[in-house]
Amino acid sequence: MMVDLSGNGAVSPGHTRHGQGSGNTGKKTSKKSRTKRGKRGRKRRNKKNIRNNKTPPPYFPPEAEEGNIEYKLKLVNPTQYRFEHLATQLKWRLQEGRGEAVYQIGVEDNGLLVGLSEADMRASLKTLKRMAEKVGADITLLREREVDYDLDRNTRKIAEVLVRKVPDDQQFLDLRVAVLGNVDSGKSTLLGVLTQGELDNGRGRARLNLFRHLHEIQTGRTSSISFEILGFNSKGEVVNYSESRTAEQICESSSKMITFIDLAGHHKYLKTTIFGLTSYCPDFAMLVVSANTGIAGTTREHLGLAMALKVPIFIVVSKVDLCSRGTVERTVRQLERLLKQPGCNKIPLMVSGADDAVTAAQQFTQSECITPIFTLSSVSGESLELLKVFLNILPPLSNSKEQEELMQQLTEFQVDEIYSVPDVGTVVGGTLYSGVCREGERLVVGPTDEGRFLRLKVGSIQRNRSACRVLRAGQAATLALGSFDRSLLRKGMVMVSPKMNPTICCQFEAAIVLLFHAKTFRRGSQVTVHVGNVRQTATVECLHGKDELRTGERAVVRFCFIKHPEYLRLGAKLLFREGVTKGIGHVTRLLPPSQNHDQNQNQDQNQQEH
User: Fold this and answer.
1) Sign of the C-alpha dihedral, residues 388, 394, 400, 406?
2) Which end of the chain has the smaller Cβ count within 10 Å, N or C?
3) Is GTP-binding one of the keywords (predicted)?
4) 339-365 as b/e, with b when 16 or more CB fall inside 10 Å?
5) How confident is the model at residue 607 (pLDDT cuts 50, 70, 90)?
6) Residue 217's CB: how many other CB atoms inside 10 A?
């Protein structure tokens, strides 16, 4: 954000003293004369500025003490003591950005863009490279810009540099991106092109490696949740399955990993898509829109789901090779109108060059309103590089301090998938919500249908299909449980530390807003509730202070699960649906399973007797 801080309009001290000295004339005359003199002074200064070809200097926002962005005016020939201090400072910024930092060279701490000469810039980048090597990192020049607010002097430049840690002990930065969009919009094909490194042939060849079931290959439609990985090394280069790499080699070579969660576009698989959004905790969402069909089918619904769950979203308009430029522009205009509507209140940002991609990546995480829009083709490869630049620079939403706080808590692992693997036994997949999980650790899993927790031992751990010794909060992985009986497990369970006293409930209260309902929402209504990895049908027991709800109304509602108790957290985001009924909210109160159930039964019996 550029801020204009011109000094025009200020009255000089000399003028003020002169005005005060002529106070014998009336107030009105004095005011008029001061106004005339002020105008004359402004004109003189404006003429002087025009004569000297000067414009007010541009600014960045002042440097923040926390975060991974550092301003440096110049780094020319520092002393050994100064160099050690600079290296320590770089280490801190890398830690704040979980392995990534951005250096703005030629910028003062207050944000003033001063710029450097060619020689000073070369010397500064050389020093920054030495600093990076000392802390085990690499640098990538993102962009250079000329600062030309004073044309009398030589051209000065500022440089934006990405510093990224070289991977060590598999501690790469991992970002999860949920892929949304209508059926046949090109989601799986785009992921195939990004992760396999080969363009599509126009008939869906690139997506074949992503499908998990035969009917998906036959219809070309995703019905399940699949995961694909795209890596970037410390120099910002793409690391994917091209050159016959395995998943293990990609993890070893990457400093940053993008895990794409490929979700279903068809409306009949909506519950799978919602489960992917609520359970896998994506950092970002990528909405894919076909250029030739525009906003169709489930596009609006998927956009609404991401916004309801407060997942930052960026948009990719695909298949631009199939239609004219006018059709692409019409689709983009459609999207811009949709994003600007009162319900969305987003600011669309068209990405048409590498400079736009860098700006979009930085502003995207700093402002909730910014929504970058890319137009590309998976067949011709048009603008595909811009999306890679954006994903390479995209910073994490949480800083190291927040992750450290989560790691200090007791272990809690969400069970999202359950498998039986030959020679390994039972395997569960999911996300570690808090704490740290190690091989051989003893945990308890539950709740069962009776509300109990069962003891188990973690065997081996795998992240992105490669072995891992330690799992940290926020990371997704699969855990081998050996001979543990698979029939005792189900999706929605949690594996927690035995020291934890997990809060399970059959009933809970939530503050909700009803997004849409065909008729009215009242006591006795049944809906499918999604809370994190929990997905179960629940009955509306009561609406506090109201008899019924209509579209757009808010209330505190008590829900009762109809099958078995679940583990929930206070404040957890909630999404419920049934047919066209949809609502969102958050959990406000958990009710103990047995006593409340008995109390409700007694209340119902009393009502029937009366």
Assistant:
1) negative
2) C
3) yes
4) beeeebebebbebeeeebbbbbbbebe
5) very low
6) 14
181: which 2 tokens? Answer: 């969009």
Q: Is the pTM here over 0.85, yes or no?
A: no
Can you give the length of the chain in residues?
A: 610
Render 317-363 in DSSP notation, one character per residue: EE-GGGS-HHHHHHHHHHHHHHHHSTTT--EEEE--SHHHHHHHHHH
Distance CA 597, CA 147 (A): 70
DSSP code of residue 57: P
CB distance 142 to 152 below 8 Å: no
Extract the tokens encoding 536: 């179960």
**283-307 burial string, b = 16+ CB within 10 Å, else e?**
bbbbbbbbbbbbeebbbebbbbbbb
Between CA 99 and CA 173 the distance in angstroms is 7
Residue 511 burial (10 A CB sphere; 0-12, 13-18, 19+): middle
State the pLDDT confidence band at 227, using cuts at 50, 70 and 90.
confident
Q: Which of 114, 162, 116 is nearest to 142 (CA)?
A: 162
Rounded CA separation 550/83 (Å): 65
The token duo for 75 is: 């780094």
Q: How confident is the model at residue 17 (pLDDT cuts 50, 70, 90)?
A: very low
According to DSSP, the residues that pair with 584 across neighbouring strands are 513, 575
* 389: helix, strand or coil: helix
User: Which amino acid is present at 202?
Assistant: G
Report residue 25's pLDDT band, with 50, 70 and 90 as the boundaries: very low
| DSSP letter (8 states) at residue 388 | H
345-378 pLDDT, tens digit per residue, is 999 999 999 999 999 998 998 888 999 999 999 9
pLDDT value, residue 226: 82
Structure tokens at 70: 């550092």
Categorize the per-residue pLDDT at 609 as very low, low, confident or very high, splitting at 50, 70 and 90: very low
pLDDT band at residue 57 using 50, 70 and 90 as cut-offs: low
The angle formed by the CA atoms of residues 379, 381 and 385, to the nearest 5 degrees, is 150
Is 458 in a helix, a strand, or coil? coil
> pLDDT tens for residues 455-506?
999 999 998 778 888 898 888 899 999 999 999 999 999 999 999 888 899 9
Q: Which of 549, 598, 334, 229 is closest to 585 using CA atoms? A: 549
Per-residue CA distances from 349 to 356, 364, 493, 532, 534 (Å): 9, 9, 40, 31, 35
**179-199 pLDDT tens trace:** 999 988 888 889 989 988 888
3-class SS of residue 514: strand
Q: How far apart are CA 500 and CA 17, in angstroms?
A: 73
